[in-house]
Automatic annotation (TrEMBL):
Organism taxonomic ancestry: Bacteria, Bacillati, Actinomycetota, Actinomycetes, Propionibacteriales
Record-linked PROSITE patterns: FMN_HYDROXY_ACID_DH_1, FMN_HYDROXY_ACID_DH_2
Domain FMN hydroxy acid dehydrogenase: 36-411
Cofactor(s) required for function per UniProt: FMN
Keyword Transferase found: no
EC number in record: 1.1.2.3
Name assigned to this protein: L-lactate dehydrogenase (Cytochrome)
Organism of this sequence: Nocardioides albus
Keyword Flavoprotein: yes
Keywords: Flavoprotein, FMN, Oxidoreductase
Length: 411
């Protein structure tokens, strides 16, 4: 007699903890608070959110803000959202090489950390923390004339890094030459001349916050102490916050720029500086093809297409949109770097795909600095590296050279 075969009975048992843990999302406990904080940041925007909570409003707004209505910055970021990448398939991208050559030397990423002033205001570790993170990542770092660390002290703090020095030409040319000589003596091989600041941009958030350097103690800042005690404790228990290049100024950022910087700067001054400096010379802040041609004719080694992160002229040209015409005008006579609006590794890929040799970032690493000091900067750079690597793999690009011509702006 035949019948329907009986089904085997399911054996039941109690689950083991090691089997339940993955389902519950349980991870090994990280005892270090800073590590836990930074691990939560999966993008630069996440680092910005952490930075906003950990620093006084006036300090965060100084980094995050732009000039007037913020149109230049908004348009720069929107331009990256319009980029279309050319993906190729069936390419071996098991190993992706993100390195490139910047001004004759290898860089692990096509990335340069831009000069930013008053860096110890964002975090008490300041410029040395940024330079050490850049050295670990194998990329250049640019110390600002308006930095809170001297060229010599920065070089001593990060002796293995590739450190550049950024210069503003002051009305006092003798003082300017002293700065240039201090950079030369300290061993800097690259000078970055910023040319888009004849006067200070109208940064309304700074004006409304009453930001001064150093921060002044008033009712507003005293109230802010209660919300950000660790930031204030670090400020008040470390060396006084002051400029390394000038130790007597007390006022707003705009007042400092309008007092010290030379609005009469011309191409003759660029030629003068070229004669004074034998190392690499980079000009930052170019916003027109005509100016690019004149600067390249002056014998510079690199240019930065930039509108100062949208912090100077509002409604300025959008660097990414200008880039292809600039690359054509340069025609290989010097390297072309892009700045403004870059917040991810995919943005770097987009810029390289449209002809840039490398990118500069400022805000992005300052968000990391405010979020977690040197380790926060390192986290930002790790994000750039991983995002760039993944984007290249998805595009079928095994090297930086493979990216050339593989990005375009959609209408």
């Amino acid at each position: 007699m035949t019948g329907t075969p009986s089904r085997p009975r399911t054996q039941r048992r109690l689950p083991r903890w090691k089997e339940l843990a993955p389902l519950l999302g349980v991870r090994r406990w990280e005892s270090d608070r800073l590590t836990r904080r930074l691990q939560r940041a999966l993008t630069v925007a996440d680092l910005a959110d952490i930075a906003r909570r950990r620093t006084p409003r006036s300090v965060f707004d100084y980094v995050d803000g732009a000039a007037e209505a913020g149109l230049s910055l908004e348009r720069a970021r929107h331009a990256f959202a319009r980029v279309e990448l050319d993906a190729r398939v069936l390419r071996d991208v098991t190993s992706v090489d993100t390195s490139t050559t910047i001004l004759g030397r290898r860089s692990d990423l096509p990335l340069i950390l831009a000069p930013t002033g008053f860096t110890r205001m964002m975090h008490h570790e300041g410029e040395p923390a940024v330079a050490r993170a850049a050295a670990t990542a194998g990329i250049p770092y640019t110390l600002s004339t308006m930095g809170t660390t001297s060229p010599a002290d920065l070089m001593a703090a990060a002796p293995t890094g590739r450190n550049w020095f950024q210069l503003y030409l002051w009305k006092d040319r003798a003082a300017t030459l002293e700065l240039v000589e201090s950079a030369r003596t300290a061993g800097y091989d690259t000078l970055v001349l910023t040319v888009d600041t004849p006067v200070a941009g109208n940064r309304l958030r700074d004006a409304r916050n009453g930001l001064t350097i150093p921060p002044t103690l008033n009712l507003r800042t005293l109230l802010d102490m209660s919300r950000h005690p660790s930031w204030w404790a670090n400020l008040l228990t470390t060396e006084p916050l002051e400029f390394a290049a000038l130790r007597s100024f007390d006022g707003t950022v705009a007042e400092l720029v309008d007092t010290m910087f030379d609005p009469a700067l011309t191409f003759e001054d660029l030629a003068w500086l070229r004669d004074q400096w034998a190392g690499n010379l980079v000009v930052k802040g170019l916003q027109s093809v005509e100016d690019v041609r004149l600067v390249v004719d002056a014998g510079v080694d690199g240019i930065v297409v930039s509108n100062h992160g949208g912090r100077q002229l509002d409604r300025a040209a959008t660097p990414l949109e200008l880039l292809p015409a600039v690359v054509d005008a340069v025609d290989g006579r010097c390297q072309v770097f892009l700045d403004t609006g870059i917040l991810s590794g995919a943005d770097i890929v987009a810029a390289l795909g449209m002809g840039a040799d490398a990118c500069m970032v400022g805000r992005a690493y300052l968000y990391g600095l405010m979020a977690g000091g040197e380790r926060g900067v390192g986290r930002a750079l790790d994000l750039f590296r991983s995002e760039m690597t993944r984007t290249m793999q998805l595009m079928g690009a095994a090297s930086v050279a493979d990216l050339r011509g593989r990005a375009r702006l959609r209408p």
